[in-house]
Amino acid sequence: MKKILGLLLLSIFVASSAQAYPSLSQDYENELFYYNYETVYRDTDGDGVYETELQYESDGLSSNPFIQAGDVFVGIASVQNINVLSISPIWSMDIGNDELTGVFAQKITSIDPLTSGFRVNLGAVDTGSTFIIDGSPYDLGLDFAAGEVIKFYTDDGESPFKVGDIAGTWTITDALDSATDGDFFFSVGMEDADDYAYTDVAVSQGAPLDAAFQAETYMGLSMINSVFTLQSDDAVNDPGEDIKNADVDFWANSEIKMNPGFMDTANNISPFPFFSNDPAVIGAVGVVPEPGTFILFGTALLGFSAVMRRKSL
């Protein structure tokens, strides 16, 4: 018998309008592979206005700002693939045609020392907080509801996601606008007592940052708002559940590094000093309402090939 490279199990797809929500499995956990870029803002005067962006150096020699409780990490995210059973994508980003992008804001609640480095504990921003970005007030993704830390939008690409371009012509405002100009899809955040988010940093505060810099973020969050329903709450088996001893709606683990585009001072390609990437997991979903296309019913689509590499931008 010939070697079987893959197996296509029975699936039913519902097709609808041109503007489509990404595929999500109704039977298995959905694995989101993404990348994101971020920077840090501070409310210098304590008046609820985050007017100061911390300025980081990319030369690997200069000291850098100390972060502190109350500072907020602000950034953009873009999902590259949604996989099922760690095998085949059931949805992949197509820049300019089919995109799933988002914006996030996470407030530092406390900083704890570690044997090597420190831990940054994260929570949601206060509702009504104002951010001054590129010199003007910005509402950060059409306003975050109470508890929300990440909001995702689906976009048919009428305004393609702005990853960056040559000669440093993009701004943080450009990036936030392009990540939030689609239709709202879902948001996650801090709602239950078991929800958590933290980043472990292996260097000391204020240390010079270079290409070797690395940190690790872990999150176990609740679904706050969405156009779909989950088959059940807290259905994701959190690999870090020893922290809270509970399962979650959304789990993510990001490896944070210095952004190569930020470090490219000759071209000044990116205004975001930090870059991080996947993965995240949400549970099986119920039916996604219109507009929805390629929503997976029945069993999952396993594909006809060996494990596919996720796209790299």
Structural description of this entry:
Residues 1-18 and 292-313 have low confidence and may be disordered. This protein has 313 residues and is mainly beta. It has one domain (33-280). The chain is built from two helices and 18 strands. Strands 2, 4, 5, 6, 7, 8, 11, 12, 13, 14, 15, 16 and 17 form a 13-stranded antiparallel beta sheet that branches. A three-stranded mixed beta sheet has the order 3-9-10, with no helix packed on it. The chain is globular and about 50 Å long.
Secondary structure topology:
Blueprint: E1 11-14, E2 30-42, E3 49-50, E4 52-53, E5 72-84, E6 88-92, E7 99-113, E8 118-124, E9 130-133, E10 136-138, E11 148-155, H1 172-179, E12 183-189, E13 196-201, E14 214-226, E15 250-258, H2 260-263, E16 274-277, E17 280-282, E18 295-298
Parallel strand pairs: 3-9
Antiparallel strand pairs: 1-18, 2-4, 2-5, 2-16, 2-17, 5-6, 5-7, 7-8, 7-11, 8-13, 9-10, 11-12, 12-14, 13-14, 14-15, 15-16, 15-17
Indicate the percent of residues in helices. Answer: under 10%
Structural class: mainly beta
The oligomeric state of the chains shown is single chain
Task: State the separation between the terminal residues, measured CA to CA.
Answer: 39 Å
Short description:
With 313 residues, the protein is mainly β. It has 2 helices and 18 strands.
Fill in the keyword field for this structure:
single chain; 313 residues; mainly beta; 2 helices; 4% helix; disordered N terminus
